[in-house]
Amino acid sequence: MRIAEITLQTDRLHEMKQFYSVVLEFPIEEETTESFTVQAGQSRLIFQQSFSSKGFYHFAFTIPANQLEEAGQWVQRKGISLYTKDNKNQYFFEDWNATAFYFYDPQGNLVEFIAHHALQNAAQSPFGAHSMIRISEIGLPLYQFEEGLARICEDFSLQVWRGGSKQFAGVGDEEGLFILIDMTRPWFPDGRMPVVAPVKVVIEGKANHFVELSGLPYHLGSATVH
């Protein structure tokens, strides 16, 4: 599964544009007085102004498998603190054969850079914004976990990828995942409880196929990408 774009809301549009386009140096593709779009590798990250945005999102960017350490240093040189717990700021996921680190943006979103060690995407050039491969995860908190999981798997012909539980599942594969989490389970690694916030996700696939989950402000769809 490949994520083409995600659209999120923010009540700090200017700060977020500065963070992503100036601090992280993601190229701006489009901007208006109410939104901006940056390119993150092969994906687009869109933020829209909302004057009542009280929630936060979790999303991840895949980076070259051999550059996690270098990427962490790059982020820290920009004055961004990596999330640290028990003197550790990198986390290895055995089931996924991946290692990641986390940090916050000005909205308080839980941002992740992840290296999937099975992907053949090693890079030789120094790490920078151009090294992003794509957005590879978007978190979707669910009130009815099993029902939402079944609906997404069925409607997009996807499966739970390597593991999962009655409160958490990654749906897709190492290239892209819907991260489904029950509202009663805290996010890893910072322990905050999930918050439902409006999100639009477009994955690569058949054109004009959209799904909405009952009672949730999620607009999930697929589109052909040229």
How is this structure best described in words?
15% of the residues lie in helices and 38% in strands. 37% of the residues are buried. The protein has 3 helices and 14 strands. With 226 residues, it is mainly β. It has helices spanning 13-23, 68-77, 145-156; strands at residues 3-10, 28-31, 35-40, 43-49, 58-62, 91-93, 98-104, 110-116, 134-142, 168-173, 176-182, 199-204, 209-212, 218-223. It has a 7-stranded mixed beta sheet with strand order 2-3-4-1-12-14-13, with helices on one face. It has a 7-stranded mixed beta sheet with strand order 6-7-8-5-9-11-10. It has a single domain, classed as Roll (2,3-Dihydroxybiphenyl 1,2-Dioxygenase, domain 1), CATH 3.10.180.10.
Which descriptors would you attach to this protein?
seven-stranded mixed sheet, 226 residues, globular, mainly beta, 3 helices, 2,3-Dihydroxybiphenyl 1,2-Dioxygenase, domain 1, 14 strands, single chain
